[in-house]
Amino acid sequence: MVAPPVTGADLVAAARALLGTRYRLHGRDPSTGLDCLGLIAAALARCGHGIVLPGRYELRSSHPLEDEAYLAPAGLVRADGREAAGDIELLRVSPGQFHAAILTGRARDAIHAHAGLRRVVEAPLPSSWRSLERWRLPPS
């Protein structure tokens, strides 16, 4: 029997299972805390997609994270057109500060590791956060 393909809704469900997880910069383990990339890796892992993330990165940088280096090898593709549930969005939060979130499929709602609230939350993204690009699981 062949396993069904993983959908964006599956990724959202996996991320929702991590709501309330403690925030920790460079966190990669839900038991000790996650940052935005750790959340994405943990949700993808729950869906059977392994991902290798950079171990460390600068909190502020003039260049966005090299997302293509870890998202493409995990089987994700760049998303064109309309936002969809399960899209992984790379955002510019402020000059030199970048963030990543998993879109839920409702207008601007996302699941992300919120540094200020110190936990993984589901909430609308601030309108001042600019989308740089989106990635998604490939269509089945």
Commentary on this structure:
Helix content is 17%, strand content 28%. By secondary structure, the protein is of the alpha+beta class. The chain has one domain (8-53, 61-136): Alpha-Beta Complex (endopeptidase fold (from Nostoc punctiforme)). A 6-stranded antiparallel sheet has the order 3-8-4-5-6-7. The protein has a two-stranded antiparallel ribbon with strand order 1-2.
Characteristics:
single chain; 140 residues; alpha+beta; endopeptidase fold (from Nostoc punctiforme); 8 strands; 28% strand
Write the layout of secondary structure elements.
Layout lengths: L7 H9 L11 E2 L3 E2 L1 H11 L21 H4 L5 E2 L9 E7 L2 E7 L5 E6 L4 E6 L5 E7 L4
Antiparallel strand pairs: 1-2, 3-8, 4-5, 4-8, 5-6, 6-7
Helix pairs in contact: 1-2
- Oligomerization state of this entry? single chain
The overall strand count is 8
Largest sheet: 6 strands, antiparallel
Instruction: Please report which band the strand proportion falls in: under 5%, 5-15%, 15-25%, 25-35%, 35-45% or over 45%.
Output: 25-35%
- From the 3D structure, determine the CATH topology: endopeptidase fold (from Nostoc punctiforme)
User: How many structural domains?
Assistant: 1
- Unreliable residue stretches: none
Instruction: Provide the residue-averaged pLDDT.
Output: 87
**CATH level 1 class label:** Alpha Beta
User: What distance separates the N and C termini?
Assistant: 16 Å
Give the spatial strand order of the biggest sheet.
3-8-4-5-6-7
SS element count, helices = 3
Residues in helices, as a percent range: 10-25%
Radius of gyration: 14 Å
- Shape-level CATH architecture: Alpha-Beta Complex
CATH homology superfamily name? endopeptidase domain like (from Nostoc punctiforme)
